[in-house]
Specification:
It contains five helices and eleven strands, in the order βββααββββαβββααβ. By secondary structure, the chain is α+β, with helices and mostly antiparallel strands. Strand 6 and strand 7 form a beta hairpin.
Length: 165
Amino acid sequence: MTYVCTRCGQIHEGLPSAAFDRPTYAHDVPEDEIPARVLLTADLCVVDDEHFFIRGVIEIPIHDYPDSLVIGAWVSQKKENYEAYVENASSADIGPFFGWLSNELSFGGEPTLLLKTMVHFRGESLRPQILLEPTDHPLARAQSDGITLSQAWDFLHPYIERAAT
C-alpha cells in the first residue's frame, strides 16, 4: 500500500510511522507563552524549567510483516535522568529510566496519557525505545503480543493525510 506523506507531500510505499511533535503537557501552554515557558527540540522538551521530557519510540510488532509499527512519543523524566540523557545522548550505557507516557494516542479506546514506561537508551544516534509497563491496557498488550497489519493501518489512519492508489 502507498500513502501521501503529510510532511513532504510525496507518495511513499509501505507502512508510515506516527509521531508527536511535543508532549501533551507542552500543548497545554498558551501559544503566546510558549517562547518564555517551553524549550523544544526534536528530541527534548522542558516546560517551565521543571517538567522534563524526551522523545523516543514505541515499537509494536506486526504479525507476518517484516516491520514494526513505530510511534514517536514523549515520556516524562525526572531532572537527573533528563540531564544524564542530554549529556550521554549517543550512549547506550545509561538507564533504563522510568517515565510517564506524555501523549494521548488513539489506541484501543483507552487513555494512554500517563501510562508507566521504561525508557531504554540505544546509542548510535537512535531514539530511545519506550517500553510500556506490562498491563492489560490495549497499547501495552499490543507491544507485548503484536497486532495485525490491518490494526496497524487502523491506528495510523488519523495520522496520515490520505491513502494513494
